[in-house]
Amino acid sequence: MDNKQPAVSMRGITKTFGKVVANDHVSIDIYKGEILSLLGENGSGKTTLMNMLSGIYYPDSGHIYINGREEFIHSPKDALDLGIGMVHQHFKLVDVMTATENIILGLNEGKFDLKAASKRISEICDRYGFELDPNQKIYDMSVSQKQTVEIVKMLYRKADILILDEPTAVLTPQETERLFDVLRNMKKDGKAIIIITHKLNEVLEISDWVDILNKGKFIGNLKTSETNTQEMTDMMVGHAVKLDIERPEPKDAKPRIIVKGLTVSSADGIRKLDDVSFDIRSGEILGIAGISGSGQRELLEAIAGLQKIDTGEITYIDDSGKKSNLVGEDPEAIAEMGVALSFVPEDRLGMGLVGNMDLTDNMMLRSFRKGKGPFTDRKIPQNLAKEVVEELSVDTPGLSTPVRRLSGGNVQKVLVGREIASNPTVLLTAYAVRGLDINSSYVIYDLMNRQKEKGVAVVYVGEDLDVLLELADRILVLCGGKVSGILDGRTANKNEVGLLMTSLGGAS
Amino acid sequence: MKNKTKNGTGLHIVKRASISWYKAMGIRAIALVCAILVCAIVTWALTRESPLEVMATIFGGSFASQRRFWVMMQDLSVLLLISLAMAPAFRMKFWNIGGEGQVMIGCLATAACMITLGNRLPNGLVILLSLISAVIAGGIWGLIPAVCKAKWNTNETLFTLMMNYVAIQLCAYFIILWEKPKGSGKVGIINQSSHAGWLPVIGRYKYLLTVIVAAAVTIFIFCYMKYSKHGYELAVVGESQNTARYVGIRVGRVIVRTMLLSGAVCGLTGFMLVAGSDHTITTTLANGRGFTAVLVAWMAKFNPFGMIFTSFLITFMSKGAGEVATNFNLNESFSDILTSIIIFFLIGCEFFIQYRIVRKKEAK
Amino acid sequence: MFNFVAFIPSAVKQSIPLLLGSTGETLTEKSGNLNLGIPGIMYVGAISGVIGSFFYENHLTAVNASINPILGIAIPILCSLLGSLLMGLLYCFLTVNLRANQNVTGLAMTTFGVGFGNFFGGSLIKLTGSDVPSISLRATSGCFQKTLPFANKTGVVGKLLFSYGFLAYTAIIIAILAALFLRKTRLGLQLRAVGENPGTADAAGINVSKYKYIATCVGSMIAGLGGLYYVMDYASGVWSNNAFGDRGWLAIALVIFTVWRPDLSIFASILFGGLYILYLYIPTGTNMAIKEIYKMFPYLVTIAVLIIMSMLNKKENQPPAALGLPYFREDR
To answer: Distance between CA A506 and CA B12 in Å, rounded?
Structure first.
């Protein structure tokens, strides 16, 4: 490397959350006038590392040097004073205020003069090529404009070390291009820029260097001009690990749900799913792979009747071959059609369960309508709760414990247990083993295999490619809301899937 | 989770994971004792009487005579009925503070039936029609803000608050239309000679019927919230609208249905007030109890049986303080002061049930 | 014939307590606190002033002196401000520190405030031993009602514009200042941020609790002055229990009606005040009942505004986004 001094140098940074080691002796450097990509899968510790640079977390051990001097960053304000600004994935903006008002919020710079501030903002925009109307209200803005406000906010506060957490996740390709232009201008101006990302093509396009993390550990530092996607993928996903997950042969697999040309946009008008077509078959586990935010959530919610659909068809075919259309129906209507659909959503306590209710009441969420008369039957859910607790060895003080008091893994067991208990014909799961220990994970895999053997059409959205490759019969790979490939789980290999996830694979 | 205080003492406020019911009750009991102490000091400062004598007077306010006891029971029942009406909506996190108006509109509907139909239709039919119209009127008063909330997310707190005064002014309008004698601005006792539309009196106990109705409604609301499908749905909606949608509960429909029930129970209360006990209508018939009920329901954490206790506490204190006021030559508003002191303590103490304050060594 | 020259000044006088109440409540709500205790606070503001000047006037009678206009004004105003400040502090302590529910706390404060006002009002009445159930503070009221010397000489214009006591003009100035504060100052911007999105405000380094405290307490004091104006000027120094009526709730309605803008409130309060007394000026003949319908109008139009605003869903006209919600950093 050059012998000039790094703007930021993080040395031997370690951070643990409880038992989880989020960063394990990670060291990185970033120089003025350069763009560094921080690459890694979900949970590899990228954001944690940057949060320590921007003052949100404080490292357990290790040192941070800014322009050669050791600094102790305790708060975002400390970070800003050192010229470090971070743009998070969730914007912190007040909707009813203008860009200018948001940018100067909390600052105390002499006379209160919105006009002067707007002028300064326009200057910053002109300098780097941002397109921003300082007097536009936030609620009138697209996601990309909001992001611009956040970046300008940092520049207005004289940040010269800029961290962007997955900035392109919410942008269209054109917007991404524009952002990259701006970043190049900032680089020319001598700013040090760090981008957290897992999109390889973007790494190659924008950055000078790439640092790769895997499971909290620093894997390597590459010069982007001297590397390629294959090398980066290998380092990012690591080597295949044998897990010995059982995979029974599917019997009599026939289409249960056919999705055709499904297109979904978010409330902001961002296209989340683009012309997605595939089928879900009975007696088979369909794995869905993809970088997080590639449309997995929207896809499952669209099938479950929770997502507004722009265009496309979702058809359910029952055992007798009768077809029913699921588009435009809400969950109650879908259930009334006789479609036994179970759904383990990603947001367990925000959607799948009610945190303040006890186990029995949570079991009842699916079954409370059953039975005649105006009253609920608590016996059945209570027995079910007992069963789930025993079979999945849920660690709980009792059945009348509010589920929010259980640990993440136990919450997940309760949720999965309930969804399976309703005898579904289709079981949709999103990150079913996230946060679970090894044993519990195997219990869940086992449960899914039992469902598969019963002829249930199982969808498994996962983030661990090793699991997907051993559990799923077929793997659908999503990339940026599009299907980039459907592979046979028995023959596919990890690199192939990894490349498809970053959209560089073969046929789509 | 860290919340470093400015002065650097390192006091942290930590949400309790759980608290045993006896501990929670203990905290409430301590708060109640503190509140009574403050009340005692205030009373002593104003009367300079021995605390024991004041205590005895307060007790006497509700229990000195059979008549007082029944008046207390009547007031307790009415307050309890309105609080019960509030409970399902609050459980759903719908801030209905329009109980006052929903009761008044029920009163108005009842009075209208008694005045216009009394002596023209058989008595039983008049009572039945009064009941139905009161329940419907109260229901509509609850329904209107609920529909707007479900459709356009209109702020229900402000909406129901405004509805109170619309109802009260409507009453004021009709009171002048019906005033008797002309020019008095009062309706007087409706059907005083014929008793048309009056609810029957059980034995010698004029107020017993209201007590029975309140007891029945308590059991009904308890079962409705705890055991019925509707009650379950509204609890889920209150906890998380996302989860409700996920399991296929239609949120808007639940909001409208629950408020219809809330309003209907308020309407029923209005019916009991006019047809059962007061046999007249004034603009102050609800007497702020629509608001007090919010406090009663809140302090009991929406548990119908808990509300029996909290509404007893409030009624007992206000009767007792009223008695203190007359005996020691104080103003009758004295009771409002004492009851609000108790309420302040009881709503303040919830903090210590929800949170713990821990002192941590030097936070980073 | 509709008598505008008589109607407008009474409408204005009627409007001032509403204007002060709504300005105070607007400031409070902009910090995200929905203070339903405002009606109680206005009672406390009024009775505190009454208590102060009652003892001052009694002292004057005892020493046989005539009223010192400066003290005659300063004593009740200071007492009133102190009384409503204490109420504001109580509300903040319960909702900000103890995290009690805002609606419940507010309603309890209204019960308390109205009871407090009536209790001390009633007690003072007993002290005077008078036959009528009211206290009369003529001398103090004289100070408050003093108009500009040329008010009576300038005919209709004087009657419409200059016939009010100084608190009326103060109220309008406060409303204008409050509007300017919210729109044109740094502190106003930060206060609005607290009410809209306390999480963002906190992240920007704004002390959320401090802003809530100050806005609520200042708001309470302004509203308390509304109560004081009612007794000292509008009611000519006569306190009688419950005379203030439901004006506090009307002030809260006004906040919604003016979509949280104190400057609009100057005109809207006159409209509300006018509707409140319209029945006196419209020949109703024998139909006395209809005046009660007129009194309903302020509430009906407020409901209409509330519904229309939520239907249009225009962001600027919505209640502050975090209104009524508690903010705890660790809950994020």
So the answer is: 56
